[in-house]
Q: What sequence folds into this?
């Protein structure tokens, strides 16, 4: 998978401006790509967005508390953004064959920046999946894959695109979107890791 994003590293050098933080919450800093004039029009694939965040010793945002989720959604609405990438990822690669991750569509979602699992997608109270989407069914629905396209393995926040308010949707990772970075305690030691190389045994259950 290196061939997918390595050529982009040289392009990332144009956008290196460490220290930029648009919001601080509970000791963590957040960077919203659309809030800086240098990246206000920049839209990247999920992997490219993660690489961007990592060059700033950050990672794609993990919405691990209700308060954090609300803050980020308010920022998306204030910026009049239609969508944005988060650090949500489906664990469907090598090493994800643990019994507690099955079925992956329900138990296999996690935040890449912290390696924490999301609640099961059947838990509609502790997560923020939309109740509808392109197929008119609750998220995640893997819509593109059902239609013969790529699997929808990455998590984005969509702003009322399906008349559903601002909520989480599973999206194919090759789509290009604005993105949100968050300080990560893991990135400085793992700044060049690809998602399939994450230590899956570090994933643990949602902390409420």
A:
């Amino acid at each position: 998978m290196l061939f997918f994003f390595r050529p982009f590293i040289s392009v990332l050098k144009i956008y290196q401006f460490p220290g930029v933080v648009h919001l601080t919450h509970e000791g963590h800093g957040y960077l919203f790509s659309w809030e800086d004039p240098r990246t206000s029009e920049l839209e990247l694939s999920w992997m490219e967005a993660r690489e961007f965040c990592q060059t700033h010793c950050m990672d794609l945002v993990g919405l691990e508390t209700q308060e954090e989720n609300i803050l980020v959604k308010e920022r998306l609405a204030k910026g009049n953004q239609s969508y944005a990438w988060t650090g949500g990822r489906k664990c469907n690669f090598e090493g994800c064959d643990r019994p507690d991750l099955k079925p992956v569509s329900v138990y296999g979602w996690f935040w890449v920046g912290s390696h924490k699992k999301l609640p099961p997608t059947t838990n509609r109270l502790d997560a923020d999946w939309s109740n509808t989407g392109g197929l008119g069914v609750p998220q995640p629905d893997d819509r593109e894959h059902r239609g013969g396209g790529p699997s929808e393995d990455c998590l984005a926040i969509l702003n009322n695109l399906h008349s559903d308010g601002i909520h989480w949707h599973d999206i194919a990772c090759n789509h290009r979107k604005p993105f949100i970075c968050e300080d990560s305690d893991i990135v400085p030691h793992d700044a060049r890791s690809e998602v399939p190389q994450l230590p899956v045994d570090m994933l643990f259950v949602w902390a409420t």
User: Anything to note?
Assistant: Residues 24-202 form a domain with the Mannose-Binding Protein A; Chain A fold (CATH 3.10.100.10). The chain is about 20% helix and 20% strand. The longest helix spans residues 66-78.
